[in-house]
Amino acid sequence: MNKNILLVVDTLSNEKGVNKGSIFEAIEAALAAVTAKEYPPETSIRVSIDAETGDHSTFRCWTVTDDETLVNELPQKYILLSDAHKENPDLSPGDIIEEPIASVEFGRIAAQQAKHVLLQKVREAERKKIEDRYRDRIGELITGIVKKTTSEHTILDLGDGAEGILLKEELIPRETFRSGDRVRGYLYAVRGDKRGPQLLISRTHPKMLAELFRIEVPEIGEQVIEIMSVARDPGSRAKLAVKTNDGRIDPIGACVGMRGARVQAVSGELGGERVDIILWDDNPVQFVINAMAPAEIASIVADEETRTMDVAVAEDQLSQAIGRNGQNVRLASELTGWRLSVMSEEEATNKHTAEAENLKKAFVESLNIEEEIAEALVEQGFTTLEELALSSDEEISSIPGLDEESIEELRTRARDTLLARELEMQLNTPEPAQDLLDLPGMTEEVATELANHGILTQEDLAEQSVDDLQNIKNLSKAQAAELIMAARAPWFE
Fold first, then answer.
1. What is the dihedral sign for C-alpha 81, 83, 86, 88?
2. Distance of CA 424 to CAs 6, 331, 367, 427, Å?
3. CA 84 to chain centre
4. pLDDT digits (tens, 9 = 90+) for 256-306
């Protein structure tokens, strides 16, 4: 019986609170490492310990392979399949052959190595435990004590051996902390690292604002009120869009609180950041009107295809609608998901008049029609030849002076013009050279896209950089790099 091994197992189990199975594994690894020093490098050693008696057996191991090169390079680690079959014909590549060898004594050196291996495993287990615990908390607010601050980041002690990282760019502008300060932040990511998991925390993340309101406003936690979207200019101003699932509750009033207590509590946590509570609306135009508050909107023209809106306001409302350094319109755009262009009523009128005039001229030239008919098409809401070509009789019949035959003639001219443009585009499309098509890894689709960007030959491609090819469809950075190097191959011959 090897009492030393059992004594070490009991001692470490009591000190570290680790199960005995892990300790036996560590001791086996330590004994195998000590034994391996007596053999050539890359020799595989396995040690097995009897948990009842403490006795241990040692084995030298070879991996069966049919690759003669491996056997020639590492004969101490691999054995050829044909030689292995002399001992056991049932063996296959990948199987392990073991040979009993003399075991070393479990002395002081082995004990120290076992303890080192065990402590390493304990640290890895603790890191994994922290990572698993906090990975489930991504998206939550967490609080920590400032442990260390540098010019690049702030380290927070979260307790139980966990540390959070608050990067400089995740701090609210002009915000500083000292050691010992309590700091609340939004956990947005957990990344594994050799030194332990990195718990990344932010105080500028839009969702931090939402989580703070979830704490301050019970109706949000009860899902009576929903937060639909958030836009922030950290430390300065924010907009929060909310809606209610209970018509009896005012979502804005509930978020503001009695005498503004709830919104002030959130603002105080964020360094005085001003928060506008906006009423959500399913109608994008009405939602934009709400988001642009406190500015009053005179008119809005929306383009659903490009998700843009021209927002017209009175001259005296223009500066308020735009906000300082464009802040109000920028936050409203981020909140609604529409690109907003704010202008005065006069500017909007002039712009729309110019656009209508350009459309009228385009219809006259493309369809060879009279200006009165082109003007009527624009007034009816037609903006492209595609819309006219696909229009129904009901959509176009209200234009005065057009009978059924004229309507069909207009649609036919629109379709013919579109077809002619498509043919012209195809004829003018450049063709990639054969040496570009023959490059290893090149596809016809990518070559055609390259040709559309003026890269027609292998030499053209060789002179490009990876950044130059970022706009090429269906081409990743890695693929771009490989194709460029293939194109440059003749340079090195």
1. negative
2. 87, 43, 17, 5
3. 51
4. 999 899 999 999 999 889 999 999 999 999 999 999 988 888 888 888 878
